[in-house]
Amino acid sequence: MAELLKGKRGLITGIANDRSIAWGIAEAMKAEGAELAFGVQMDVFGEKVKPLAANMGVDLVLDYNVQDDASTQAAFDTLADKWGGLDFAVHAIAYSDKSELTGRFINTSRENFKSSLEISAYSFIDMAKKAEPLMKDGGTLITLTYQGSRKATPWYNVMGVAKAALESAVVYLANDLGPQKIRVNAISPGPMKTLSGAAIGGARKTFRFTEANTPLRANATKASIGGTAVYLASDYGECTTGETIMVDGGLHILGLPQPENF
Ligand SMILES: NC(=O)c1ccc[n+]([C@@H]2O[C@H](COP(=O)([O-])OP(=O)(O)OC[C@H]3O[C@@H](n4cnc5c(N)ncnc54)[C@H](O)[C@@H]3O)[C@@H](O)[C@H]2O)c1
Known about the structure:
Blueprint: E1 9-13, H1 21-31, E2 35-40, H2 42-56, E3 60-63, H3 69-83, E4 88-91, H4 110-131, E5 139-144, H5 158-177, E6 182-189, H6 195-198, H7 203-213, H8 222-233, E7 244-247
Parallel strand pairs: 1-2, 1-4, 2-3, 4-5, 5-6, 6-7
Bound molecules: nicotinamide-adenine-dinucleotide (NAD).
C-alpha cells in the first residue's frame, strides 16, 4: 500500500458488523495508514463491533447515536481531547421502519418520514457541525447514498426521499465549509448485501437484477467503496467537493436492462 492516509486521523460511523460498508471503508483506510476511531450505536451493535475494532487495533470505540445529542457531542469531545483535531469523518448511517420499505411509497407515514429523514439525512448536517471546529487545517466529510434518491426504485420509498435530502445537504455543506478547506462528498454504491440492504423489500431480487444488468455485470464491493473513500480523504481528493460519486458498476447510466434480460 502507498500509505495515502498516513498521518491522518478519522472517525468512522455506521459499523454494525463486518459486512457493513463502513467496515469496508475502515479496512481500506487502515491499510493506507490512517488512525481510526469508530462511532458505534453501542446499545445495538457494541458487542459485535468491539472485537472487530480490537482486531484492527482501533482503541477509540465511542458511542454514537444520532438521535441523542449528548452521545454524538461526547464522541466529538473525546476526539478533541485525545487527538486535538480531526482529518476526516465518515457517515454511513441510515434507518427507516422496515414495514415502509415495501409496497407503495404513497403510504409513507408522517412519523416514519420524520425519523427516517432525521436519522439518515439530518445526522450528516449535525456531524458536519460538530466536526467543523476539529478540522482546523481542513478535512473531509463523506456520506453514503443510493441512486433511489434520483430515480423511483422499487421498495426504496421514503429512503429515496431521505437520500435526496442527504445529497442536497452535501452541496450546501460543501459550500459552507469550502473556505475552511473542508470537503464534503457522497459515495453512491449499488445494492450491497448488508443488514440495512436486507431490510429493503425485494433486496435479493434487486441484487441479482443489478449484477446481471450493469455495464460491468457486477455489483459494488466493499473494497471498491473503501478505495473511493480513501481517494476522497487523501490529498489526491483536494479539489473534489459537493460531489456524489457513483460506485455501482455503471448501473445509473442505463435506461433499460440489457437485451439478454428482456
Ligand atoms: N446496502 C446497500 O445496498 C447500500 C447501497 C447504497 C448506500 N447504502 C448506505 O450505506 C450506509 C451504510 O449502510 P450498510 O448497507 O453498510 O448497512 P449497515 O446496516 O451495516 O449499516 C447501517 C448503520 O446505520 C447505523 N445507524 C442506524 N441508526 C442509527 C442511529 N440512530 N445512530 C447511529 N447509527 C445508526 C447502524 O448502527 C448501522 O451501523 C447507509 O447510509 C446506507 O443507506 C447502502
